[in-house]
């Protein structure tokens, strides 16, 4: 089943062009968003991602209608790939059900991995700098605010709790106690739908 998603940036803009293109492409169900605030919740996208199922295809007019930044595009693309949902961008002619389109997912996956590694390196560098400034080293029994913030960034990339615990220098059970898995899931969902709009 083809499911369409259309978005415009202001209330004044019209969705008709995108909806017409999605209908012509064979979309049986179309979700829309009209965003008038940079932090407005994208209920249409949220509903579309909840609606699509394994084997379905999410169709958009352009990739920038789906996501407004690379980080958001990586998250949504990984979500679709993990749930075996295809993505088709009409304007860019990207169709992940084709060999060339599947290469798109492969490239995005590599970029996502590189992004995770860069975050990990920044976290390690920050922790090392904190130690040089005279903060306590070793393995504390509790998370400091700085380490909790660093751990959250790593966990949101999908890094396992055990590796994050090692990176920030706390026992894994302590990390679970201070940052439950449910909190990570909630933060990930929130970031998935709260994106920065263009000026």
From TrEMBL:
Q: Which residues form the active site?
A: 9
Family matches, as Pfam families: HTH_7, Resolvase
Alphabetized UniProt keyword annotations: DNA integration, DNA invertase, DNA recombination, DNA-binding
- PROSITE patterns given for it? RECOMBINASES_1 (PS00397), RECOMBINASES_3 (PS51736)
What is the primary gene name for this protein? Answer: hin_1
Source superkingdom: Bacteria
What is this protein's record name? Answer: Invertase
Q: Tell me the GO BP annotations in alphabetical order.
A: DNA integration
A GO molecular-function term, please? Answer: DNA strand exchange activity
Q: Which InterPro entries match?
A: Homeodomain-like_sf, Recombinase_CS, Resolv_N, Resolvase-like_N_sf, Resolvase_HTH_dom, SSR_resolvase
Upper lineage is: Bacteria, Pseudomonadati, Pseudomonadota, Gammaproteobacteria, Moraxellales
Instruction: Give start and end of each Resolvase/invertase-type recombinase catalytic domain.
Output: 1-134
Q: Which organism is it from?
A: Moraxella caviae
Q: PANTHER family, per this entry?
A: DNA-INVERTASE FROM LAMBDOID PROPHAGE, SERINE RECOMBINASE PINE-RELATED
Q: Which family does it belong to?
A: Belongs to the site-specific recombinase resolvase family.
């Amino acid at each position: 089943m083809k499911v369409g998603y259309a978005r415009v940036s202001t209330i004044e803009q019209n969705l008709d062009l995108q909806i017409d293109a999605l209908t012509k492409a064979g979309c049986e169900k179309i979700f829309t968003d009209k965003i008038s605030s940079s932090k407005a919740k994208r209920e249409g996208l949220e509903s579309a991602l909840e609606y699509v199922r394994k084997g379905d295809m999410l169709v958009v007019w352009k990739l920038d209608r789906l996501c407004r930044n690379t980080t958001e595009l990586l998250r949504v693309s990984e979500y679709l790939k993990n749930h075996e949902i295809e993505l088709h961008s009409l304007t860019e002619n990207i169709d992940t059900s084709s060999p060339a389109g599947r290469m798109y997912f492969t490239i995005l996956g590599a970029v996502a991995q590189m992004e995770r590694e860069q975050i990990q390196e920044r976290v390690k560098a920050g922790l090392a700098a904190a130690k040089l400034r005279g903060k306590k080293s070793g393995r504390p029994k509790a998370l400091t605010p700085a380490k909790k913030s660093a751990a959250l960034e790593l966990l949101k990339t999908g890094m396992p709790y055990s590796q994050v615990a090692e990176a920030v220098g706390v026992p894994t059970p302590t990390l679970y106690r201070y940052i439950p898995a449910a909190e990570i899931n909630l933060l990930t969902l929130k970031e998935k739908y709260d994106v920065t709009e263009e000026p």
